[in-house]
Amino acid sequence: MNNLLDMARLQAGAVTLNRQWNALEEVAGSALRLLAKALEGRGVDTRIPADLPLLRVDAVLLERVFSNLVENAVKYSPPGSGIVIAAQVEQSEGARQVKVSVSDGGRGFPPQMVQHAFEKFTRGDVESSTPGVGLGLAICRAIVEAHQGRIWIARQEPGQGATVCFTLPVEAQPALPEE
Q1: How far is residue 102's CA from residue 127's CA, in Å, rounded to a whole number?
Q2: Angle between helices 59-75 and 24-34 (to 10 degrees)
Q3: Among positive and negative, which fits the CA dihedral 60, 153, 110, 47?
Q4: What angle do CA 36, 37, 40 make, to 5 degrees?
Q5: How is residue 130 annotated by DSSP?
Q6: Is 109:123 a contact under the CB 8 Å cutoff?
């Protein structure tokens, strides 16, 4: 129900971003703490460099992106398998951006789903006992795009896990107060 309400707000433009300077590692860590119970028995390897620039983002919404991507990794990969969250700065078309990836050790996205994965009501398993209505990735796309970023499924070999990547722009860093 929350996903439906969130999707409706995002599509209606009723969500105003509360952009603040945030460390990506803290936002990802907050999402992982919220998912602690679901992550029991799984290792999560975070590869976020300490010198990654701060990002001016809505931390609550970005936490939702991490939560949805990690929840999907848990749902669609074998129990006990690991999850990797990685980030790096890239230069693209003259602009700096942070590229984030969330990878799992599951079976990956079916080839026919890759093109439609971020559409509303698209599920990895149409007939399944896996909970969900297919809004998680659509919500991720709406949030990332509201931040002027892009989200996609990275290519992978069948059966080698799934990797979802997204980018966020790097803005001029805030001035630090003198000590």
Answers
A1: 25
A2: 50
A3: negative
A4: 85
A5: S
A6: no
- The string of pLDDT tens digits covering residues 5-36 is 555 556 556 567 899 999 999 999 999 999 99
Nearest-angstrom CA–CA distance, 24 and 87:
9
- List beta partners, residue 97: 90, 169
* Residues across the chain: 179
List domains and CATH numbers for the chain: 2-169 (3.30.565.10)
Chain-centroid distance, C-alpha 171: 20
What separation, in Å, do the N-terminal and C-terminal C-alpha atoms of the chain show? 48
The pTM of the whole model exceeds 0.90: no
Say if CB 144 and CB 168 are below 8 A apart. yes
Strands 95-104 and 83-92: antiparallel
Report the interhelical angle of 136-146 vs 59-75 (nearest 10°): 150
**Percent of residues in the chain assigned helix, strand, coil, to nearest 5:** 30, 25, 50
The 10s digit of each residue's pLDDT in 102-139 is 999 988 887 777 676 777 655 555 444 444 446 789 88
